[in-house]
Specification:
The structure holds 2 protein chains of 2 kinds. By secondary structure, chain A is an alpha+beta fold. Helices cover 51% and strands 8% of the residues of chain A. Chain A is elongated, with a radius of gyration of 26 Å. Chain A has a 7-stranded mixed β-sheet, sandwiched between helices. In chain A, strands 3-11 form a two-stranded antiparallel sheet. In chain A, strands 5-6 form a two-stranded antiparallel ribbon. By secondary structure, chain B is mainly alpha-helical. Chain B is flat. The chains are: A alpha+beta, B mainly alpha. At the A-B interface, helix 1, helix 3, helix 4, helix 7 and helix 8 of A face helix 2, helix 3, helix 4 and helix 5 of B.
Chain lengths: 559, 124
């Protein structure tokens, strides 16, 4: 089956170009390489970046690096591995830094997911597919785009593979398609395992619908079942880890969580005016449901999956909503097509092109539409539009200091971070590649209010505790690392003697300058004790090496 | 066998065109970066995902359009690459070699399955 350049592919190429420009382009400041992690908006983004860095250093993902897992050695690598490995491989091939490579993979594959979903909708109707394409780009608009900016990257990539799984299932009647289904489903399971559950929701709806309409063939059924089973076999090694870590730490519990607390979740109202054609399209999809169209089934099943927060799936369901603009774009396409069909029939393709251009203009964010001054995005119906976030939370000065620690300190050095505005997003501290503690902000402020400089500060041992920090003791047996190592109760959080650390890190600037000044006061008392030497300094950070570890390293006093 | 490989010639021209298009679109999206940086990234995408994706879906050449095979195939190849990288790492092959070693292996596997197990029927 060949291909020829026709107007459809030209339009698709242009739209993909627009999606690349507005999505990955604007998120990455229109360049792929940066001097520090660019466009990272929250701790989770750094969590994934540092894990990929650790895999690059270790050569594999058998274990988590100790600086990620609260200093414990031998902790089993429990996160689904595909994202991290792709980030490392892409950075190795392209010469990019891992922090650029892993984010680029998530963003670029987001666009590829849009394209594959277009292929799915195209099986149903070409005009509908074209009309739905600009709507899909809204994954890069707020609040959907929080998934990328805040670092829900495994879920994003998992959903891209989920779309690929829908596509593979759509080929279920083709000989040997079990291979395609197996590859796609295994990719889902090993990228973000919870998406596999939603894949099964889709499959149940698709097969059920086909059975009701008596349109499923034995061969197709055989391909689907074989594909899913083989994917299970391929993923078995990791699934054993998953069942003994994530599944044990976060077992299913029925619960109703209508709102995603602490997150700007995506709700149906977030579609604004786009909701109108969406509802029309969904209604038509239900009314004309005799023969199940796979894109429609994908839309309906992901709509259901996105509402499974009412059935205990909470965060996982809210994550599915990040890609609602893609899944539900088919309904919008149908809705628009039904409304515009008379015009398209009269004016031909030109009308379609004009509508597409209008849609691209509307979602591009060039102009807010309707042009009404809004204080909250939901108060006045509007069309959501795409916007990048800019630099994110990292800056050159902090990055330089973190890199300096990773390259110039002893491998077993223990680092102590005093107050820093960005350190609340503690995963970024893992870029030191050293075990580190940090001052607890509340305890720190309390000491400041007491006008005290002391040797002990309330401190936290940050680390990734998602899932279960476990050590594998046999093929099917796992022990909690903290239990296995028998750590004291204040190991993770409590008063700590700063003199037991090898390096101290002080921020020189803060949004609340008094905190930075307190930092510098502590630094000067450490220097006055002749127990430390300054080993690094730039405009934002000072690093001191403790030369009397365990001894008197600071003058304790009040001021 | 020669005829089968000859039939790939036209498709490979399209793959080359797709590669050029990827580079052109990346050049527009990442216009603030250097041409060299964008070229390397585009070539990496081609080497890691597009070509292996093309190879592993070659078996369905007569049943699925090239456009779909390139788009969905690239995703399938990415998934396979990630999975193969995970397991190869566990088996002792350092991840730094994977970008070099895994794509040709996946391509060979795809081409081999196309030659070895040709699809007979024309459903779908």
């Amino acid at each position: 089956m060949g291909m020829k350049i026709n107007s459809e592919f030209t339009v698709v190429a242009v739209l993909v170009g627009v999606a690349l420009f507005l999505g990955p382009g604007s998120f990455l400041g229109h360049k792929l390489g940066h001097d520090f992690p660019y466009g990272y908006g929250a701790s989770d983004a750094f969590q994934h970046q540092t894990r990929a860095e650790a895999i690059k250093d270790m050569g594999n993902f058998r274990y988590e690096a100790p600086y990620i897992s609260s200093s414990f050695e031998g902790v089993v690598g429990r996160y689904p591995p595909v994202l991290y490995h792709l980030g490392v491989i892409f950075s190795a091939a392209s010469g990019m830094e891992v922090y650029d490579g892993i984010y680029a993979i998530v963003l670029l594959f987001g666009v590829l997911g849009i394209l594959v979903f277009y292929c799915l909708v195209r099986q149903f109707n070409k005009a509908v597919a074209l009309l739905s394409l600009p709507i899909s780009m809204l994954i890069f608009s707020f609040p959907s785009s929080i998934g990328m900016y805040w670092g829900h990257w495994p879920s994003i990539l998992g959903q891209v593979f989920l779309i690929c799984f829908f596509w593979a299932v759509s080929k279920g009647s083709v000989s040997g398609s079990w291979t395609l289904i197996a590859m796609a489903f295994a990719s889902v399971m090993l990228t973000h395992t919870s998406e596999a559950i939603f894949g099964l929701v889709f499959l149940a709806m698709y097969v059920g619908w086909k059975m009701l309409s008596k349109s499923i063939a034995k061969e197709e059924m055989k391909n689907i079942i074989s594909g899913v089973l083989i994917a299970g076999i391929v993923s078995a090694y990791y699934l054993v880890i998953f069942m003994n870590t994530w599944a044990k730490a976060q077992p299913y519990q029925f619960g109703i969580e209508p709102v995603w607390n602490g997150n700007p979740g995506f709700y149906l109202t977030s579609f604004g005016l786009v909701l109108l054609p969406l509802l029309i399209g969904a209604a038509i999809g239900i009314l004309k449901a005799k023969e199940p169209q796979i894109a429609m089934v994908a839309g309906f099943s992901m709509l259901v999956a996105g509402f499974m927060n009412y059935a205990g799936f909470n965060v996982r369901s809210f994550q599915i909503r990040f890609f609602w603009p893609v899944y539900l774009s088919v309904f919008v396409g149908v809705g628009l097509y039904v409304v515009l069909r008379p015009a398209v029939k009269r004016a031909g393709h030109a009308a379609l092109i004009v509508v597409l251009a209008g849609l691209v203009f509307a979602v591009s964010g060039i102009e807010e539409w309707p042009i009404v001054s809004q204080k909250e995005s939901h108060t006045i119906p509007s069309i959501p539009s795409i916007k990048g976030y800019g630099q994110g939370m990292m800056d050159g000065g902090h990055w330089e200091s973190l890199r300096w620690i990773s390259q110039n300190t002893e491998k077993d050095a223990k680092i102590y971070f005093f107050y820093g505005d960005i350190y609340g997003n503690d995963a970024l501290l893992r870029n030191t590649k050293r075990v580190h503690y940090q001052a607890d902000p509340e305890g720190f402020v309390k000491k400041l209010q007491e006008h005290t400089i002391s040797r002990e500060y309330l401190s936290e041992l940050p680390g990734d505790s998602g899932g279960r920090v476990a050590i594998r003791t046999g093929w099917f047996s796992f022990e909690d690392a903290a239990k296995e190592k028998d750590v004291p109760p204040d190991f993770f959080f409590g008063e700590k003697d700063i003199c037991t650390f090898d390096y101290f890190v002080f921020d020189r600037t803060s949004r609340q300058q008094v905190l930075a000044e307190y930092n510098l006061l502590i630094a000067s008392e450490i220097q006055r004790s002749n127990a430390s030497i300054q080993v690094f300094a730039n405009d934002v950070v000072i690093i001191m090496k403790n030369t009397k570890k365990g001894g008197e390293c600071i003058y304790e006093r009040t001021f | 066998m020669k005829e089968r490989f000859d039939s790939l010639k036209e498709e490979l021209q399209w793959v080359a065109l797709a590669a050029a298009l990827i580079f052109a679109l990346m050049q527009v999206a990442f216009y603030k970066g250097s041409i060299l940086e964008n070229l390397r990234s585009a070539l990496s995408l081609l080497w890691l995902f597009v070509l292996p994706g093309y190879a592993i879906t070659l078996r369905w050449k007569e049943h699925i359009s090239l456009f779909e095979r390139l788009a969905a195939g690239s995703l399938l190849a990415a998934g396979m690459m990630g999975i193969a990288s995970y397991y190869s790492g566990l088996m002792g092959l350092h991840v730094q070699f994977h970008a070099m070693v895994l794509p040709p292996m996946i391509m060979i596997a795809g081409i081999w399955s196309w030659i070895k197990w040709p699809l007979k029927d024309s459903q779908g």
